[in-house]
Amino acid sequence: MTKRDVFEYALVRVVPRMERGECFNAGVIVYCRAKSYVAARTHLDEAKLLALDPKADVAGVRAALRAVEGLCAGGESAGQAAGDEPGRRFRWLIAPRSTVVQPGPVHTGLTVDPEAEVERLLDLLVR
């Protein structure tokens, strides 16, 4: 039997107008401590964004989603967090915030391949 490791994930949500509270999923962040793995994948449904807020800053939302992916990737794209371990970067990203792009609740699961989980969850919950 193949060993499965515990992983955590959170959806990345877009809340175009905070006062209305409407949101939609635009990405997923996956963290697996056993594999020292953290990654994010995003997919912005521009039509959905503009349906909820015709004046939304599409370029700004895209930049914020790219920043989430960059922070997970580490290295220069992570900015000040470049030297932080994957778990610390994940915890920073899932901290509650009142911005247009924000994390959802954290969930857990078991996986053999965390990279495959990122793609599976993106297809299942975002696209």
Mean pLDDT: 92
Structural category is alpha+beta
Q: Count every helix, treating DSSP H or I runs of 4 or more residues as helices.
A: 4
Q: How many individual β-strands? A: 4
Overall body shape: globular
Strand content: 25-35%
Helix content: 25-40%
Main sheet strand line-up: 3-2-1-4
| pLDDT < 50 stretches | none
What does the radius of gyration come to?
15 Å
Question: What is the element layout, followed by pairings?
Answer:
Elements: E1 5-14, E2 24-32, E3 37-42, H1 46-52, H2 58-73, H3 86-94, E4 101-111, H4 114-125
Antiparallel strand pairs: 1-2, 1-4, 2-3
Offer a quick outline of the entry.
It contains 4 helices and 4 strands.
Molecular structure report:
- This protein has helices spanning 46-52, 58-73, 86-94, 114-125; strands at residues 5-14, 24-32, 37-42, 101-111.
- It is α+β, with helices and mostly antiparallel strands.
- It has a four-stranded antiparallel beta sheet, sandwiched between helices.
- Strand 2 and strand 3 form a beta hairpin.
- It is globular.
- The termini are far apart.
Looking at this protein, list some descriptive labels:
single chain; 127 residues; alpha+beta; 4-stranded antiparallel β-sheet; 4 helices; 4 strands; globular
